[in-house]
Specification:
The complex is a heterotrimer of chains A (559), B (366) and C (332). Chain B is of the alpha+beta class and 366 residues long. Chain B contains eight helices and 21 strands. In chain B, the strands form four sheets. A six-stranded mixed beta sheet of chain B has the order 7-8-9-3-10-11, sandwiched between helices. Chain B has a five-stranded antiparallel beta sheet with strand order 2-1-4-5-6, with helices on one face. In chain B, a hairpin with a 2-residue loop joins strand 1 and strand 2. The longest helix of chain B is centred in the middle third of the chain and has 18 residues, at 175-192. The relative contact order of chain B is 0.12. Chain C has helices at 2-12, 18-31, 44-54, 65-77, 90-98, 170-182, 187-199, 212-217, 228-232, 263-274, 276-286, 315-328; strands at residues 33-38, 57-62, 85-89, 102-103, 124-136, 161-164, 203-205, 222-225, 238-240, 247-257, 289-290, 307-309. Classes of the chains: A mainly alpha (559), B alpha+beta (366), C alpha/beta (332).
């Protein structure tokens, strides 16, 4: 058993390594080579130039504030929502599921733009309303600022944080809290001293994933930060490489290395911090329904808060998209705007052969990619959680490698890599790139699921004479269905709107939705962009609903 | 500290049906005794315990601990669990995995903002009491099941609660450890002189630990009494059946004779312990397997009361279970389970005669 | 057959001997397709017309400007450059020419173009990505629109301007430098203009693409943007300020790739692209300013405007000026 586990570990390291290390190696080469590709003469000039820029320090400080504050915001919101959903008698719990998934399908660019439409200081709708209501002379809120960036990025990263924290909170042994209550601690003290510390692995995971995501994020810094002249690493990188026509990605990779080091360090620290508590498998109490906390008078106000949040996270961006897709050009809502509405952008998009092809390709990539990605994730998560060797640690770090590289650079790394292979300019390059980059989205929910599974269960199967593979198929996978479903959903909805890799790897015939959306945005065609954006959200929704149904059905068959 | 429960009801709603978890429970738990709530799963015993602690809110009634009303529907009083000053040991022990032993035990004192020195001293005392000295720095995740149980007990005791409650605390231990821990628990509680409420579905545990047992079924208390009373002298067929293995035989009361009640049943005419059951009515005769005495040789002399409880039967099966044989004896249409000495020279198909002591022939209501 | 005739007619217009044309076209058809690398809006109808008229399949690969050079060179060095024809801003083609990515070809179809558009035997300029001041005609009266570039420094435009980030957007940097070289008499006057513009606190966006939206919605009133949006974003209430000085822009150019998999098709594509028919489509549907004689975009007043090409700046120069503008505009 041990030798087969070791073999499995090394096989996975080889697969995941090939997928994630190659592009990063290309970027390392690129950062040390003269010229614009990965194979020039050796030079350290790019590092010198990148790290001696006097503006670099301020950018780092800004980046630190932006990344930490937005991850903190998304984690706190996720804890708040997950707690309300799993532990209290708040009404309309289905809203939470929607909150957790829909925003992942909305292209980040559009989400940021819709916030600018609401909160810009010139004619942002909320600002206009506030000016009207309080008789102010100037706009009270300005989205183009650090807090605006933190707010929008925090909201964007909320779904992933929620999807990590909520299952942990749901499987939490309530007796741990109850005993604290009986010991004399009130609800708040129990929350702070027991619930949150026990959930530390999930909370830290959500926070760190948030940090890694916001480090790599480009939409918010460019749409909100740039007009406000708040520069963070992503925009600094962009400015550095995009001044001039010959974009030097090697230099960007040189800066990206520090992001990579920071991310990998975070992941190592995270592993160290949670190594102890993840080992602890609580004896699950039998049959007792977890008691819900009665919110009493706070019930409706808290629900109002959740309602507001769902308004902000879902209704608002989708409404803005819908509105934009119907008006002929960017307009503030008015009687005139409503009178000019038409389906022109819709018919343009639905009659555009490239948009239709991109739809087909994205669908293929989402379904096939997420399926393959989940299969790989099951094995990787198994090794990470159950085979606690040093090699398993290496595997986990590897799985985060290309994920944590800044988005605008990693795509070029993949291009440098794939151009050396026959896969270049085929849809398979996109498929492999997607899986490699978003592997953590599959692995995270799966490892949470694995932690819940006692090793006795698999050992008893092995004792019964089943091979490790049969054990995996017959015993472990069925128990993992919830993790598999959420991993699939995460990956599929990610793939439907994937941009960073697609923009460099997609070619005629392999166009995908996000690239088509980017084209529209480059040409300033917001109407078509919104129409296609809605199509994209519909596709993701369909995929999510299907995955959930299949998951439920499978559970029913097993049960 | 006495606990008084008056008219407490608790309902659950599931799939459009109302389930009465507690149905108008009235109960007084005497102070400084070990009081056990015993019942099959779903009988409402854990719900009742959780209502006392405050983790569940009843739908009607009143609960008093000592002189304090901690919950009352009519007076609109609801004291939260943290203000009730109780201690509780959970089925899963609920040892906080992110703390070491010391912090787990010190927690109730810390939340009461006690000075650090005093906390250290009291934790040390309590750990000594549960024989866990020297384990202060041990992470909670590195404790065995038995050790977790003791830490949980220490944590429940450290703040000197008015009442300590146990929710099936031994059910997660293996058989041998369970027996040892039960004895220890009995010893600890005996020394403490504290009101203890203990929930279990294990009759041996209940009999061995309790000063008093309340047997529950379907949200109601069926019977309350000492272990001996419940075991030997139950009033209800359900209790008699639940508390130990019993042969239950349908019977009809035919007479009152010499302080005994006489019934007719499938075993013939049996003289039983006295019960106030009118002649002619139906009842259930309950005979515990260990009180079926196989008679070898001559039948007892006539005139002896036991003589009238002499029955002839045939051995149908014989299973060796260690200290005894478990024997199934057929008498007419009835089948009785008996426990007999392992050295008895019997085999399947043998005819046997046995006697039943009227003192151990219980009549319970149908 | 009709289509073929039409194609021949188009090619005839280039005033070249018929026989040579036919031979080239046959070769192109034998090669089957022409792959076109560019980043230009809405040219699909031209590609479609090319395919229909010549029988050679046109295939458009659109690559974002920021990835354009990196992609081309990466593919070229790996021996996998799939482009037959490359179209990009002139500085990009110059860069590619230096890396020997381009081949020589002088298209007969460019015969009528101005002399300066034939830079050398490899690169043919066909249009200018012209920049102008675009305003919201519902919120700003034509009379109030700037008459000269200097008017942008008037206090009435404070917090009302949107423009691409002058610290890094190459075309904007070139345009600002173009003002110095073509519009302002002295560098001092030019610097005063820049400081005045900076004092009006323009809102910066990443490129020209996002500039029209804030104008349409009224968030801002005027943009340093491109007149082509008046065509592509119709019926948005956009108009351009008729400044008395010339309009300027970066030249757009086209060339054959040196290792083109389909060289004959590539040449046929360029001939078609430079033809009157394609250029008319480009001007009419996309609002591009093209250099084919007598063809103008359907924008009121553009025919009369003087549109000039900006001198091409090297990347080093762009970076130098970018850094300079960063200071002037107090871009953090």
């Amino acid at each position: 058993m041990n030798s087969s586990r070791t073999k499995l570990t090394w096989l996975l390291i080889a697969i995941v390594g090939a997928l994630t290390v190659c592009p990063v190696v290309m970027l390392v080469l690129g950062s040390f080579s003269e010229g614009l590709t990965a194979f020039g003469h050796f030079t350290v000039d790019k590092y010198v130039a990148a790290y001696t820029d006097p503006g670099f320090y301020e950018v780092m400080v800004n980046t630190g504030i932006f990344v930490l504050a937005s991850s903190l915001l998304s984690t706190l919101l996720a804890i708040f929502l997950a707690y309300l959903n799993t532990r209290t008698d708040i009404p309309f719990k289905f809203l939470f599921k929607i909150i957790s998934i829909i925003p992942m399908m909305i292209p980040h660019l559009l989400f940021a733009v819709s916030w600018a439409l609401l909160l810009n200081p010139s004619n942002g709708l909320i600002n206009l309303g506030l000016k009207e209501a309080f008789g102010l002379d100037s706009a009270p809120l300005n989205i183009y600022s650090m807090w605006g960036m933190i707010l929008v990025e925090g909201l964007l990263d909320l779904p992933i944080a929620y999807l990590i924290i909520a299952p942990a909170m749901a499987s939490f042994d309530v007796a741990l809290e109850e005993s604290s209550r009986v010991c004399g601690a009130g609800t708040w003290r129990t929350l702070l001293r027991i619930t949150l510390p026990v959930l530390r692995p999930a909370i830290l995971a959500a926070f760190i994933l948030g940090v890694v995501r916001s480090l790599a994020s480009f939409a918010v810094p460019s749409v909100i930060g740039m007009p406000g002249r708040v520069h963070v690493l992503a925009t600094y990188l962009y400015e550095m490489i995009a001044t001039g026509f010959a974009t030097d990605y090697g230099k960007a990779a040189a800066v990206g290395m520090s992001v990579l080091v920071a991310s990998v360090t975070l992941i190592v620290v995270y592993r160290a911090l949670t190594a102890e508590s993840e080992k602890f498998v609580t004896i699950s109490s039998r049959g007792f329904r977890p008691s819900v906390i009665e919110l009493g008078t706070a019930r409706m106000p808290l629900f109002g808060l959740v309602g507001l949040l769902s308004l902000v996270l879902i209704v608002l961006p989708v409404a803005v998209l819908m509105y934009t897709s119907l008006v002929p050009y960017s307009m503030v809502p008015s009687a005139k705007a409503f009178s000019m509405m038409s389906l022109k952008h819709w018919s343009d998009v639905l009659n555009d052969p490239i948009s239709l092809l991109s739809l087909k390709n994205s669908l293929f990539l989402a379904v096939v990619g997420a399926t393959l990605g989940v299969i790989l994730s099951v094995f990787v998560a198994y090794v990470i959680v159950k085979v606690k060797t040093r090699a398993a640690g290496i595997l986990e770090s590897l799985s985060y490698l290309s994920f944590s590289f800044p988005g605008i650079v990693i795509g070029v790394g993949f291009m440098w890599f794939f151009v050396q292979t026959p896969l270049y300019a085929t849809i398979w390059a996109l498929l492999l790139g997607y899986i490699a980059t978003y592997l953590p989205y599959g692995i995270r929910p799966m490892s949470s699921a694995f932690i819940q599974i006692h090793s006795h269960l698999e050992e008893s199967s092995l004792v019964c004479g089943a091979s490790p593979l049969t054990t995996m198929r017959r015993i472990i996978v069925p128990l993992l269905i919830p993790g598999i479903v959420s991993g699939w959903i995460l990956m599929a909805s990610m793939f439907v709107r994937e941009l960073t890799l697609s923009v460099v790897l997609s070619r005629p015939g392999t166009e995908v939705l996000a690239v088509q959306i980017l084209r529209f945005s480059e040409d300033g065609l917001w109407g078509k962009l919104s129409a296609l954006g809605i199509v994209m959200i519909l596709i993701s929704t369909t995929l999510v609903v299907m995955a959930t149904l299949v998951g439920n059905r499978f559970k029913a068959v097993q049960g | 500290m006495e606990i008084r429960i008056r008219g407490v009801s608790k309902y659950y709603y599931s799939e459009g049906k109302t389930i009465k978890a507690l149905d108008d429970v009235n109960l007084t738990i005497p102070s400084n005794k070990i009081f056990t709530l015993l019942g099959p799963s779903g009988s409402g015993k854990t719900t009742l315990l959780r209502c006392i602690v405050g983790l569940e809110t009843p739908d009607a009634g009143e609960i008093c601990i000592g002189d304090d009303v901690v919950w009352s529907k009519d007076k609109n009083i609801s004291v939260p669990p943290e203000k009730r000053g109780l201690g509780m040991v959970f089925q899963t022990y609920a040892i906080w995995p992110h703390m070491n032993v010391f912090d787990n035990v010190a927690y109730p004192l810390q939340v009461r903002n006690m000075p650090k020195d005093e906390i250290r001293q009291r934790v040390a005392e309590t750990l000594r009491f549960v024989q866990m000295e020297g384990f202060e720095r041990r992470p909670a995740t590195k404790l065995s099941g038995g050790q977790q149980q003791r830490v949980a007990l220490a944590r429940a005791l450290v703040a000197e609660p008015r009442v300590i409650l146990f929710d099936e605390p031994l059910s997660n231990l293996d058989a041998k450890l369970r027996e040892e821990t039960r004895k220890e628990l009995r010893a600890f509680l005996g020394k403490l002189q504290i009101t203890a409420v203990y929930v279990t579905h294990d009759r041996v545990e209940a009999l061995a630990l309790s000063d008093s047992i309340a047997v529950m079924r379907a949200g109601q208390i069926v019977e309350i009494g000492t272990p001996q009373k419940i075991y030997f002298d139950a009033d209800h067929r359900f209790v008699a059946d639940f508390i130990g293995r019993a042969n239950l035989v349908k019977a009809t009361v035919i007479a009152e004779k010499g302080g005994c009640t006489v019934v007719d049943c499938g075993l013939g005419r049996i003289v039983c312990q006295h019960r106030d059951i009118p002649v002619g009515s139906e009842a259930t005769l309950c005979i515990r397997p260990e009180f079926i005495r196989i008679v070898s040789g001559a039948a007892p002399a006539a005139g002896n009361l036991a003589a009238c409880n002499s029955v002839e039967g045939r051995i149908e099966s014989l299973v060796f279970v260690g200290e005894v044989y478990e024997v199934e004896i057929g008498v007419g249409d009835e089948h009785l389970l008996a426990r007999i000495d392992p050295d008895a020279k019997l085999k399947e198909g043998d005819s046997v005669s046995f006697t039943l002591d009227p003192a151990h022939c219980l009549l319970v209501a149908i | 057959m009709k289509k073929l005739l039409a194609a021949l007619c188009v090619l005839c217009a280039a005033a070249q001997p018929q026989a040579q044309d036919k031979a080239q076209l046959d070769k192109a058809r034998a090669e089957g397709k022409a792959s076109f690398y560019a980043n230009i809006t809405a040219v699909e109808p031209i590609i479609k017309a090319f395919t229909a008229d010549t029988g050679v399949t046109g295939e458009y690969t659109r690559i974002s400007t920021s990835k354009f050079v990196a992609t081309m060179i990466t593919e070229f060095e790996a021996g996998k450059l799939m482009a037959d024809v490359v179209q990009a801003p002139l500085p990009v083609l110059d860069l590619l020419k230096d890396k020997s990515v381009l081949a020589s070809y002088r298209s007969p179809a460019a015969a009528g173009y101005p002399e300066w558009t034939r830079k050398d035997d490899k690169v043919q300029i066909f249009g200018i990505e012209y920049v102008a001041l675009i305003y919201n005609k519902e919120k700003v009266k034509a009379a109030d629109a700037p008459k000269r570039y200097e008017d942008l420094t008037l206090p009435k435009w404070k917090d009302k301007i949107v423009m691409p980030n002058p610290a890094n957007h190459a075309t904007t940097i070139s345009w600002l430098v173009g003002l110095k070289e073509n519009v302002f008499k002295t560098e001092a006057e030019w610097r005063t203009f820049l400081q005045g513009l900076a004092a009006n606190k323009p809102m910066f966006v990443a490129s020209f693409g996002p500039t029209p939206a804030p104008i349409e919605s009224g968030e801002k009133l005027i943009a340093i943007s491109m007149p082509k949006y008046i065509v592509t974003k119709a019926p948005a209430p956009l108009d351009w300020a008729r400044v008395s000085q010339p309009l300027m822009g970066t030249p757009r150019a086209i060339a054959v790739a040196s290792k083109a998999p389909h060289p004959a098709a590539a040449r046929a594509f360029i001939d078609y692209w430079l033809s009157k028919k394609s250029m008319e489509m480009l001007a009419k549907d996309v609002g591009e300013y093209v250099l084919a004689p007598g063809i103008y975009p359907p924008i009121d007043g553009i025919k009369e405007a003087k549109v000039i090409a900006i001198r091409e700046l090297s990347d080093a120069e762009i970076q130098k000026w970018g850094a300079e503008f960063k200071k002037i505009f107090d871009v953090k």
